[in-house]
Design brief:
CATH class of the largest domain: Mainly Beta
Largest sheet: 4 strands, antiparallel
Number of domains: 2
CATH architecture of the largest domain: Sandwich
Shape: elongated
Number of helices: 2
Structural class: alpha+beta
Strand content: 25-35%
Radius of gyration: 21 Å
Helix content: 25-40%
Distance between the termini: 46 Å
CATH superfamily of the largest domain: N-utilization substance G protein NusG, insert domain
Strand order of the largest sheet: 2-1-7-6
C-alpha cells in the first residue's frame, strides 16, 4: 500500500467517525429537550401576553398583524402581514427555549416553562 492510499483511508475514516459523532449528539441533545408549558409573546422586548400550551386556540396578537395557533402542546404563527412571512415558515415549536421571530412586526413567540437542561450558553 502506498502512502497516498493510507492517508486517504485514514482521512475517510476520520470524516465518517466525526459525522457519526455529530449525528449521535444531535439525537441525544434533541431527546433531552423538555417540552415547554407556556408561550410568551414579546413585542419590542417587552412581554405582552402569555398563553398555556395546554389550551388549544387561535390568538390574534399585535393588533391583528400576527396570529398564532396553539394545538396539542405546540405553537406556530399562522398569519403575519409582513411581506416575507418567514415567521410562518418556521412551523411548529414546542420545546423550552425555541422561538419564532417576526422581525418586521417586532414580535417574538417563545416557548418556556420546561425544565431546561442547559445551565448557560456562551
Amino acid at each position: 500500500m502506498n502512502r497516498k492510499h493510507t492517508t486517504l483511508v485514514r482521512d475517510t475514516l476520520l470524516i465518517i467517525t466525526l459525522l457519526l459523532i455529530g449525528i449521535i449528539l444531535l439525537f441525544v441533545l434533541r431527546g433531552r429537550s423538555n417540552e415547554g408549558s407556556y408561550v410568551i409573546i414579546m413585542y419590542q422586548n417587552e412581554e405582552k401576553a402569555r398563553f398555556s400550551l395546554a389550551s388549544d386556540g387561535i390568538y390574534n396578537i399585535n393588533n391583528g398583524k400576527n396570529r398564532i395557533e396553539i394545538l396539542g402542546g405546540k405553537v406556530r404563527m399562522t398569519y403575519a402581514d409582513c411581506p416575507d412571512e418567514l415567521c410562518i415558515r418556521q412551523g411548529w415549536i414546542e420545546y423550552d427555549g425555541q422561538s419564532i421571530i417576526c422581525l418586521p412586526n417586532k414580535i417574538t413567540v417563545m416557548v418556556s416553562g420546561g425544565d431546561s437542561l442547559v445551565d448557560f450558553v456562551l
